[in-house]
Design a protein that fits this description.
The structure holds 2 protein chains of 2 kinds. Chain A is α+β, with helices and mostly antiparallel strands. Chain A has 2 domains: 50 residues; 86 residues, Sandwich (Immunoglobulin-like). Chain B is of the alpha+beta class. Chain B folds into 2 domains: 50 residues; 95 residues, Sandwich (Immunoglobulin-like), CATH 2.60.40. In chain B, the strands form 3 sheets. In chain B, strands 1, 2, 3, 7 and 9 form a 5-stranded antiparallel beta sheet that branches. In chain B, a hairpin with a 5-residue loop joins strand 10 and strand 11. The relative contact order of chain B is 0.17. Classes of the chains: A alpha+beta, B alpha+beta. At the A-B interface, helix 1 and strand 8 of A face helix 1 and strand 3 of B.
Amino acid sequence: MGFSLTATWAIIGACAIIIIELLSTLFFPLIVNVDESTTHNNVHMLDLINTKFNLQNISLQPNGSTTDLHFQLNNTGQSTLDLSQCNLLIDGAIATFSYTQPYLFPQETTTLHATNLTIAQPTHIKMVTGNGAESYTTYPLGGN
Amino acid sequence: MGFSVTGSHVIFFVASVIVAGAVSGVFIAVSMNLTGTFQDKAERLETHLETDFAIINDPRSIPHQNGSYIFYVKNIGSNRLICSNQTCQAFIDGVIIDQSAYHFNTESLYPDDYAELYIINSTITTGYHTLRLVAQSACEDTLIFTIE
């Protein structure tokens, strides 16, 4: 009877060890992965909160049958802007733009150029950064 | 008499080993199912946390081309976004749009890139509207815009 009990506990004990091994080998990597994703998400949110910029000194210049738009981008936030990841919308349509420096550090200002626009008199300009932060302005400033 | 005691002990021993084995087998099977479910759930959570996008249009000026309005969808997450009628559902003013009424200009959107979502003009009238786009991992974004 004692031997039967010992054998039973031995089997259940071995089973418990297998279960603990299964759970620990699976759960630890899962917890680490989810934790990494959560951290990444938090960093993204912080980056978004710290990204602030505005568009200023907008000027238009006729260029034959097209128009060139020049404006200054002022980084007023605490994050560095990667201009290659930014998108420019002029009157609702995505437009390409050129820049002299690829990164804009906090409190720096740079001039961007959107050339050969088919719109003669653009009125709404919007810029979106890689992390989704946006700035919107009208031209002439304060207009609709 | 001696044999019957030994025989009953053997029977008890075999029975207890069978019962213990069966119980252990059930526990292990349940644990394996549980770990599989947790793994799926954790992977979905991970994907959800790393997937994000934004509709970046100018809400006052939605461009249109060839009978469709164009909406710009930017990948602001760190995962590749699958853009198709099967993985993304579009709602205008809370009503789901038929899959034949919209399409993307690309099937796959890498981080920091943008895709164009074409919705045919007939589904959107003039006035104020709300576009809600739901993509993979139930990530969604909403844009309130006007058509003049």
